[in-house]
Amino acid sequence: MSTEKHDPMKPLLEMQHESHEFPRNVGSGRLLGIGTDIIGCDRIAQMLEKHGELFLQKVFTPREIEYCSARKSAHQHYAGRWAAKEAVLKVLGTGWAKGIQWTDVEVINEASGAPTLFLANRAAEIAMEKGIRTVQISISHCKEYATAFAVGVT
């Protein structure tokens, strides 16, 4: 245990701690893109109410529909996936252009609950052209908003 007295003016990196220092850039890929998005959950709820199955099938894959529809407050889960898809397209630098469809970006949860991303068709081709090997995502939502953050690395 460190006997050093805490000085609130001293930068955190200079302080002695009993913690693990994470190595920098050891075995990790190069960052090729980041993206983030936020959406009001009520917007997705309105789209679901107005367009129903047509909306679901245009935007979400069958596995996403199965997952979200089985959840309480399904519209919040759909909103999280919407935000994730938008964030991923910012990583790719394309937006909804260059032949990419909504269902080319799929978010599936691992057994642990962590979201995993699958790219298909044109979205996968663009990722490969840019040298992106993987896209990591994080999704969060509450009653009003859903947000997602994505990082593409080699």
Largest sheet: 3 strands, antiparallel
Beta fraction: 15-25%
| CATH superfamily label | 4'-phosphopantetheinyl transferase domain
Q: Low-confidence spans: pLDDT under 50, at least 5 residues?
A: 8-26
Query: How many helices?
Result: 4
CATH class: Alpha Beta
> What order do the SSEs take from the amino end to the carboxyl end, as H and E?
EHHHEEHEE
Return the average pLDDT rounded to an integer. Answer: 86
The percent of residues in helical segments reads: 25-40%
The secondary structure category is alpha+beta
What's a quick, concise take on this entry?
With 154 residues, the protein is an alpha+beta fold. It has helices at residues 41-59, 62-69, 74-92, 121-129, and strands at residues 31-40, 105-109, 115-119, 134-141, 145-153.
